[in-house]
Design a protein that fits this description.
By secondary structure, this protein is an all-alpha fold. The protein contains 5 helices and no strands. The protein has a domain of 63 residues.
Length: 94
């Protein structure tokens, strides 16, 4: 069966709409999600860990920050390495 260009475009449009409705496509893209993900992760960091970072001992909690951010990043579709590094910098006041 041959498809015309018009038919192919219609099929693509319908599939795109279906995936968008299911929540598998996000119009904002990664950067829009990224900022929200960083904020959500930063809010999840306990105050004591933030204090440790401010004292110049961020290296002792880097792994913990990553593991706090990982489920949030998975849920929001962000890169956890990138987000946790930004969160660590925010905790240190950089």
């Amino acid at each position: 069966m041959k498809l015309t260009k018009r038919q192919l475009k219609r099929i693509i449009r319908e599939e795109y709409t279906r995936l968008k409705r299911k929540g598998l496509i996000n119009e904002m893209g990664m950067r829009g999600n990224h900022a929200a993900c960083v904020q959500k992760c930063f809010a999840a960091i306990p105050p004591m860990m933030k204090q440790i970072c401010k004292l110049g001992m961020a290296h002792t909690v880097t792994n913990d920050i990553y593991h706090i951010c990982a489920p949030i990043c998975d849920q929001m579709g962000c890169d956890c390495d990138e987000v946790s590094a930004e969160v660590e910098a925010m905790c240190c006041g950089r």
